[in-house]
Design a protein that fits this description.
This protein is an all-alpha fold and about 250 residues long. The longest helix is centred in the N-terminal third of the chain and has 42 residues.
Amino acid sequence: MDLQKNKIEKLKSEGYTLKFENLFNQIFENYKKIALYAGLILFVFGILLITAIYGGLLSYFGIETITEMTKPENLNPANFSKEFLMIYTAFAILFTCLISPFSAGFIKMAYCADHDEEFRLSTIFSYYHSTKFFTLFITTLIIALVNNGISTSAEYFGFPVVGTVLTMLISFYALLTVPLIIFSNLGIFESIQTSMILVSKQPTIIIGLCTVSIIATLVGMLLFIIGIIFTLPFIYSFYYILYKEVVGFEN
């Protein structure tokens, strides 16, 4: 691991080279290996999650209240109270943090597929009982809180577009954070800082790949909407291949 960290320090100071076509081909080949299995997992757990959330709301509020809340005129954010928005934001941040190990599991699946290793359902949940759970949770929490703080402040001062751009930039430069945690064993702040430095070395190519990956994922929206479940794994292949080509692995 010391060799890996020494390599990362060298990359941070000297930089690296990337080839767009090579990376895209690798991402696509990796995606083909995990698309069906990962898509089925997302489909099943998506249904279970929606059922659990809706069932919980139904048992707590009742069918009449839920029906009233879901009317189009009541879904306008301008009609929401500050208390509701605060609770909703807190829940959204907590949910994002709790599923970060789940996303890390899909990146690990991409790694297994690339190395012709068997991957199972347990691979997706491997980081929930790992020592890296806390690091993934807190790192995601910090990034989410910073983004939310910037977005809220920008909207308060009347510059919502500026807030959106800044949060997108932070998310972009933090692209390698999760792979650096699970593959290079970096800590909370070290992973964030390292990701931002490494991404800044080749931002043009990386943002191009990121854009293409997002477009490829959104293509699933054209396939009866549910198709996005099977195109979403493209993003996880993108995370993995980007880390592989930027940092790589010890022999």
